[in-house]
């Protein structure tokens, strides 16, 4: 009997040893490592699927419409709404690798969505005449304009301020505390100071910044009372700016643009050809 019991004990010990060894192989560290690898593979598969979807022709999408037909649908959706709320916007999906820099840039609209009040500070009479006569700027002047704003005689009711180099020092010393908090103080770094006031006005009066939010780029491209030609011109300007942002992107792999939709304030999203 004794040898038999000893044998049974030995077998049980052997089984216990085997169980312990198996448990060691399924330790938390091994499971975690496997999970990370699985997560990486899952993320890679999802990225490849998104890239494949982004490369699909927009004509295959069930919500696709030719862009001019889309405009008609969106205008119909806004009938009876206040004109101030009838804005047409464009949204593009951005497919990026993890950690890729966000896309950003500026759009030079040939047909601005709203009037921008521009103040031009210059003591150069020729530049002053260009700003006043050619571009009809809201406020134009040099030392006298700076003094008027400083004394409160002229209200700060403009959207952008531009200047020529000859008045920058005076602007900074007298109006920095007033214009600075409003982000209206002209500065070379901000691209609002130049000898050529005409180019400066064109670049700032009709330019709208954009920045990627999550996986989307979204900008307003016009109002419902814009003509088809005006809307198309603005969309072409958006396309050009988005492609420039892709070209300027710093990273191992550049992002790609996917599905693009146009929508209005109260209308549906309609897929268009934005390639």
CATH superfamily of the largest domain: Ribosomal protein L1/L10, rRNA-binding domain
CATH topology descriptor of the largest domain = Ribulose 1,5 Bisphosphate Carboxylase/Oxygenase
Shape: globular
Q: What is the CATH class designation of the largest domain? A: Alpha Beta
Give the N-to-C terminal Cα separation: 87 Å
List the helices and strands and how they pair.
Elements: H1 2-25, H2 28-54, H3 67-77, E1 87-95, E2 104-108, E3 118-121, H4 125-134, E4 139-141, H5 143-150, E5 160-163, H6 168-179, H7 197-205, E6 207-211, E7 216-223, H8 228-248, E8 256-264, E9 270-271
Parallel strand pairs: 3-4, 3-5
Antiparallel strand pairs: 1-7, 1-8, 2-6, 8-9
Helix pairs in contact: 5-6
Description of the structure:
- The chain has helices spanning 2-25, 28-54, 67-77, 125-134, 143-150, 168-179, 197-205, 228-248; strands at residues 87-95, 104-108, 118-121, 139-141, 160-163, 207-211, 216-223, 256-264, 270-271.
- By secondary structure, the chain is of the alpha/beta class.
- The chain has two domains: 54-103 and 212-272, Ribosomal protein L1/L10, rRNA-binding domain (Ribulose 1,5 Bisphosphate Carboxylase/Oxygenase, 2-Layer Sandwich), CATH 3.30.190.20; 118-205, Rossmann fold.
- The strands form three sheets. A four-stranded antiparallel beta sheet has the order 7-1-8-9. A three-stranded parallel beta sheet has the order 4-3-5, with helices on both faces.
- Strand 3 (118-121), helix 4 and strand 4 (139-141) form a beta-alpha-beta unit.
- Helix 5 (143-150) packs parallel to helix 6 (168-179).
- The longest helix has 27 residues, at 28-54.
- The model is unreliable at 1-24 (pLDDT under 50).
């Amino acid at each position: 009997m004794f040898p038999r019991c000893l044998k049974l004990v030995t077998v049980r010990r052997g089984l216990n040893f085997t169980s312990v060894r198996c448990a060691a192989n399924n330790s938390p560290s091994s499971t975690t490592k496997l999970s990370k690898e699985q997560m990486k593979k899952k993320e890679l598969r999802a990225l490849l699927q998104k890239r494949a979807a982004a490369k699909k022709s927009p004509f295959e999408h069930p919500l696709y419409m030719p862009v001019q037909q889309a405009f008609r649908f969106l205008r119909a959706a806004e009938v009876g709404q206040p004109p101030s709320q009838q804005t047409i916007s464009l949204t593009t999906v951005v497919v990026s690798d993890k950690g890729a820099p966000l896309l950003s840039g500026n759009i030079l609209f040939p047909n601005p969505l709203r009037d921008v009040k521009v103040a031009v500070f210059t003591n150069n009479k020729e530049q002053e005449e260009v700003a006043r006569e050619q571009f009809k700027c809201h406020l134009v002047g040099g030392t006298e304009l700076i003094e008027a704003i400083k004394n409160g005689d002229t209200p700060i009711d403009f959207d952008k301020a531009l200047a020529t180099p000859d008045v920058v020092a005076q602007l900074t010393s007298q109006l920095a505390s007033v214009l600075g908090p409003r982000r209206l103080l002209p500065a070379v770094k901000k691209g609002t100071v130049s000898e050529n006031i005409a180019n400066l006005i064109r670049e700032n009066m009709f330019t709208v910044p954009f920045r990627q939010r999550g996986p989307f780029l979204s900008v307003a491209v016009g109002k419902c009372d814009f003509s088809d030609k005006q809307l198309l011109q603005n969309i072409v300007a958006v396309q050009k700016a988005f492609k420039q942002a892709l070209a300027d992107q710093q990273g191992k792999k550049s992002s790609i643009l996917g599905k693009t939709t146009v929508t209005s304030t109260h209308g549906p999203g309609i897929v268009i050809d934005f390639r």
